[in-house]
Protein: 3-dehydroquinate dehydratase
Organism: Alcanivorax dieselolei
Amino acid sequence: ATILVLHGPNLNLLGQREPDKYGATNLAEIDQALQIRARKAGHHLQHMQSNAEYELIERIHAARGEGVDFILINPAAFTHTSVALRDALLAVSIPFIEVHLSNIHRRETFRHHSYFSDIAEGVICGLGADGYQLALDATIRRLGTDDD
Ligand code: DQA
């Protein structure tokens, strides 16, 4: 199966950006670990980071035509603002897991609300980079191990 990992704004700075909140692991390391894990299970994994809302939306639209089976997404700040990104996920109706490095519920009130959680298969937050691996493990269990 094909899994798409999407990272929202400022996550390109992971490792340097507020490491007390977001950890020391950079995005390339996260993506590489996911890629290895997915490949071992016989799946294809693609990843993309963008600071632009429209690029993430267009990537989600393209995912439908490409036959992407599952999405892992950390919408970052768009979590709390983007009806457009939410609508894109609803439009393609590809199941997804929402991931956050930090525990958004332990932070400022404006981070407590997500435009994605009520339409996500599941939500993982507060476990740092491990959250992505856990999300991928859950995805792999759901997809089964196959080569398509
Ligand atoms: C984040 C949490 C968001 O509130 C924040 O805007 C981010 C990262 C996280 O992974 O913890 O950029 O999604």
